[in-house]
């Protein structure tokens, strides 16, 4: 009889503990501030157009090389939080199955399986990521070289004639 009362109190306690741990994983909603009393936003500022007698400087050249640059973010070591949360959730779910010693076995299997699954999810989310960008080297018409780091070379190929206008590279 006392055993049944303890069991009837243990299930809600485990459920509340799991809910409290999961509530810590929730990202807070950003709070947007409003101006009161209402004040209109400042007018945007645009760069002044060059005067009609001021020439816009455009350079030309030929693509000499295109390199692939790879960068990688380091993996994050698992903290164990995924295993703990997974074990709690698995234990609660396993406790809902069966009666007597079958329920205890299902609870233990749920704890172990949930911990393994939670740890795997945490490890996958903390894995390092690889990013690629490109360095386009251009031999300018005056003989000098300039390099441009771009996310994608687009339709540029080695030997293409290009123009550089305001730091932007494009086919010519």
Report on this model:
With 172 residues, the protein is of the alpha+beta class. It has three helices and five strands. Strands 3-2-1-4-5 form a five-stranded antiparallel sheet, with no helix packed on it. α1 (2-23) packs antiparallel against α2 and α2 (81-95) runs antiparallel to α3. The chain is rod-shaped, with a radius of gyration of 31 Å. It starts with a helix and ends with a strand.
Task: Chart the SSEs and their pairings.
Blueprint: H1 2-23, E1 58-72, H2 81-95, H3 101-125, E2 130-140, E3 145-150, E4 161-165, E5 168-171
Antiparallel strand pairs: 1-2, 1-4, 2-3, 4-5
Helix pairs in contact: 1-2, 2-3
GO cellular component, one term: outer membrane
Protein name: Glycine zipper 2TM protein
Keywords: Membrane, Signal
For the record, the CATH class of the domain at 54-73 and 129-172 is Mainly Beta
Name the CATH architecture of the domain at 54-73 and 129-172. Answer: Beta Barrel
Order of helices and strands: HEHHEEEE
Spatial order of strands in the largest sheet: 3-2-1-4-5
Tally of extended strands? Answer: 5
Global Rg: 31 Å
> What fraction of residues sit in β-strands?
15-25%
Describe the largest sheet.
5 strands, antiparallel
Instruction: Enumerate how many helices there are, as a single number.
Output: 3
Determine the mean pLDDT. 75
Which fold name is given in CATH as the topology of the domain at 54-73 and 129-172?
Answer: OB fold (Dihydrolipoamide Acetyltransferase, E2P)
Class of secondary structure makeup: alpha+beta
Brief rundown of the structure:
This protein has 172 residues and is α+β, with helices and mostly antiparallel strands. Helices cover 36% and strands 24% of the residues.
